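call fold(seq) -> tokens
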Amino acid sequence: MRNLKTLMIGICVLFILTACNQSDWYDTRDEAIENGLQEEGIGESSTVSIEEYDGETIVLYAQDNSLGVASITESEEGYSWYRSAPNHRFEVTGDLPYTTGSFEVETESGMQVTIFYGEIFDSTIQVNDVASREGLDELTLLGDSKLFYAVFE
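ret:
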């Protein structure tokens, strides 16, 4: 009976350790991005932007009027998709021309990256207008989604 308990505990520990290390590795960065987007349920028609930042590959994507961010990890095993934060969206009431916010994500290597983002509601405002008003040199518009972002360390 005691050996059976020990065996069962060992099997449970093995399952837990296996579940915690479920990264899928791919031969190329593009394969990791493609499969990561599929895992997230992002269709081919969704807007995706890829940024290289301090040696890290940051993937930003629009999904249901929210901004998602992931990073691509490179190791001896290949390339892997890593997302440490939920998608971000705005729940806006009132008549605002645009709104902004920021959040931090952590890459699998431990690097902290700050994402400044927002959404334009007034069709007469351009993303360059928002950048000027916010005191930024540049903001990137994420396709036709009206979402914009900038990446900071």
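Helices lie at 2-20, 29-40, 127-133.
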